[in-house]
Design brief:
Radius of gyration: 23 Å
Number of strands: 8
Strand content: 15-25%
CATH class of the largest domain: Alpha Beta
Distance between the termini: 49 Å
Largest sheet: 8 strands, mixed
CATH superfamily of the largest domain: Alpha/Beta hydrolase fold, catalytic domain
CATH topology of the largest domain: Rossmann fold
Strand order of the largest sheet: 1-2-4-3-5-6-7-8
Number of helices: 12
Shape: globular
Helix content: 25-40%
């Protein structure tokens, strides 16, 4: 007698027993990835964290300085399939605590905050990924807390403020002459305290459009520019107290805040953990700096993604996520 396919499947499952049925059921069930969030009191600063995913921990730090982890999403979500992702908002940024004294916004303090989160969440050894300024923070962490790292990922970043200032000056020099002249005039006139009272603490709209439009846009994107990118809106997404303390108050094309202390090139050879350096082929953080970091960190791996800018995980999300997942999971 020929059994119908459904009846045959039920008969097979009954013979196989409950364990096989449970395994089969799990194999076809959609995966669920709950989000956990909270705060860690890191020596006087409440640091917001959010976790999602399964596997060994991958802690991710954002750029700016003064941005938040939000710009990583949804682009980095595929990494949750292979790793437990821990996003944080750095002190003073995003949903983390604002501090009365802006002098407490330093890369050194933020490295200690990362360590406080690692300890408080009981993560053990972590992979640490930093993008842009977050890559500077990741280097600072590695130079102080290397024993607590399993892997280090430096994405679209720099190890020397002197070199980054040279890259920024080059970007400015490539602007259309009339736009470059206007940006310079606005810088010389002073960029803060202009316009309506509520605008005093940030760039004038005209300068934001010049810097983040004419200046940066071609260095941010390549294959897939963000269709929602608006250079004039960027100034509402930054924690300006953090940004001015760390980047400075004299415009986008010079770092003259406390990030001037970042000169790590000669210290990079002391980093011994497996390191991936990844950037876009026409990155705002000039790829020559990624090549230098690769040369300084023995055994490190360098990937320059094609047709990609500073937001390489937006331009080439499959290549970027695949490279990170394989590296931190030793595949």
């Amino acid at each position: 007698m020929r059994m119908r396919p459904y009846a045959a499947l039920l008969a097979l499952l009954s013979l196989a027993g409950p364990a096989t049925y449970a395994q089969t059921h799990r194999a076809v069930a959609p995966a669920v990835y709950p989000i956990t969030e909270g705060y860690v009191d890191a020596h006087g600063a409440m640091i917001y964290y959010q976790t999602i995913g399964r596997g060994t921990p991958l802690l991710i730090v954002h750029g700016g300085p003064g941005e938040s982890h939000d710009y990583f999403l949804p682009y980095l979500l595929p990494l949750a399939r292979t790793n437990k992702l821990i996003f944080i908002d750095e002190r003073g940024s995003g949903r983390s605590e604002k501090l009365a004294d802006p002098h407490q916004y330093t890369v050194e303090n933020m490295a200690d905050d990362v360590e406080a989160v690692r300890v408080a969440l009981g993560l053990g050894k972590i992979s640490l990924l930093g993008h842009s300024y977050g890559g500077v923070l990741a280097q600072a962490y590695a130079l102080k807390y290397q024993d607590h790292l399993s892997h280090l990922v430096l994405a679209s970043t720099f190890a020397s403020t002197t070199e980054m200032n040279q890259a920024l000056a080059k970007i400015k020099s490539q602007m259309p002459p009339n736009r470059q002249a206007l940006a310079t005039a606005l810088e010389h006139a002073g960029l803060f305290g202009k316009g309506a009272p509520w605008e005093h603490g940030r760039y004038p709209q005209a300068y934001a459009n010049l810097a983040w439009g004419d200046g940066y846009f071609s260095k941010l994107y390549g294959a897939r520019p963000d269709p929602n990118y608006d250079p004039g809106s960027q100034d509402t997404e930054i924690s300006w107290d953090v940004y001015r303390e760390m980047w400075g108050s004299d415009g986008e094309f010079v770092i003259d805040g406390n990030l001037k202390s970042v000169e790590y090139v000669n210290k990079l050879p002391t980093i011994k953990v497996p390191t991936l350096i990844i950037a876009g082929d026409h990155d705002e953080c000039d790829p020559s700096m990624s090549k230098e970091m690769n040369a300084k960190i023995k055994g490190s791996k360098l990937i320059l993604l094609p047709n990609s800018g500073h937001m390489a995980f937006v331009d080439q999300p499959v290549l970027w996520n695949d490279a990170v997942a394989k590296f931190v999971n030793n595949k």
